[in-house]
Amino acid sequence: MSAAFVRQQLIDPKTPPLLSVGIPAWLREKLFSSIFNAVVTLLSVVVLVALIWPAVKFMLIDAVWQGTSRTDCLAETVGRPVGACWPFIAAKFGQFMYGFYPGDQVWRVNLTYAIGVALLVPLMIPRVPYKGVNALLFFGVFPFFAFFLLVGDVFSLPHVETRMWGGLLITLVISFVGVIGSLPIGIVLALGRRSSLPLVRWFCILFIEIWRGVPLITVLFFATYMLPFFLPENWAFDPLARVLLGVVLFAGAYMAEVVRGGLQAIPRGQYEAAMALGLGYWRMMTFVILPQALKLVIPSMVNSFIALFKDTTLVLVVAIFDLLGQLRAAFADPNWATPVTLLTGFAFAGLIYFAISFAISRYALYVERRLSTDLVR
User: Does the CA dihedral 186-191-197-201 come out positive or negative?
Assistant: First the structure.
């Protein structure tokens, strides 16, 4: 016969549980989980407010939105402190986007942008079919189509010299060609640097170290002013093409080291497994090693792409006016000379560079998460 125990006193009431869902729980877990984290959070908020509020006040609250000349952006005329002079951006917008491209032909630039976006967006969406055809059109056909469309002199299109190009058009052209051209060059150089053939390995090492040891501005000077001396006299090499060649080779050397880091991170067992299946060197690299290596170095690759996109501003030193070059040229217009014109122009350019760079980094994070099949999500 078992004895039963009956408690005579009530159990002490427990502390009510903290909220485990919703915004309060997220704030408590991420921002105020400890005294140190709470102090850091509050200090960060103070710093952000101190930095963001003046920018918002300058670009939005105190900004001038309508006007036709510099007088509309002067404090004496407006009767209050003046922020950004957006009429200056509106007046020079075409110059910032197209440079000195003929006004009646800018539809060719817009058509190039539209076709590029139409081919790029389906390539970025995983569920869209026919990725192989889409990639072939974007990487293989589109560059040549865009070249003939922008340059002209075919299909009754007027010829437009590259010295007339400028603004965001030049920035995107150099960035696009640099990114597309540097990746295959970097892969080949990275494989060559790990080659067992001494001649191939030494050549790749020498190539990479030379290009990495020279500043980009020196490469641009050499490609623009010194390269013609090494070419036959009857060779007419377009200045923009020389700059593109220098940028591609320069970025390819850096990309080679990024890819080599990914190759070194692959375990030896992957190579042995591929060879055990009877795969040759190139099939092993194409189907087994490189897909894994490139997945590992996505952050470094994106970092190099963003750096290349921003480094296009250096082409101004060789008389090629990209977005920032056109911006600086517009500052010389006396019709828009105000105390805030300079700050307005740089704020506008900064927003464009930030928007594009941020979009690239966000999409890269999405791709990285999607390809991280070996990690628990």
Answer: positive
